[in-house]
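== Protein entry: sequence and backbone fold ==
=== Local backbone shapes as whole numbers ===
==== Amino acids and backbone structure tokens ====
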Amino acid sequence: MNDCKYGYDIHNGEMHITLLKSGVYPNENADKGHHRFVYSIYPHEGSWAEGKTVNAAYALNNPMEASGSNAAIRSAFDAVCNAGRIILTGWPKNDTSIATGTITKKELDVRGARTSAGEFEEALDLIASGRIDMPRILTKVIGIDDAPETIRDIEKNPGSYMKVVVNM
């Protein structure tokens, strides 16, 4: 899955994605500069429809920010694709500075949804007290080099994984 890139293929069991393809004519400066891409590997059983890949792709391209962290809110604006939607449900302690030009440039739909204020602190207390079994929720933290092996293991043992964090 990716954020609006269209150059991808699967051949002989290998997946390929073209992140940038740029010509030099008629504009020799086309596509020079900083580029940002989001892509995700989503292992699933069965067909793409049975694996609900459309739902997962929609979630990738339309982030929901629930922590209320100012940094996470700003990150959601960076991560969302053009014409995407951001749903803010967290309760930040302070106002978040947002480059409003990004909303216009990316044609974003930004929505707020009321949730129960104070639940984030309660969740942290539950984790700290041990009443939430974090090892059960966070299955593994890996480096990018371990991702292929972990993905193969997820495919073989999907019931053994809840969440894997890949450090890059």
Remarks:
- The longest helix spans residues 119-129.
- The domain at 62-131 is CATH 3.40.50.720 (Rossmann fold).
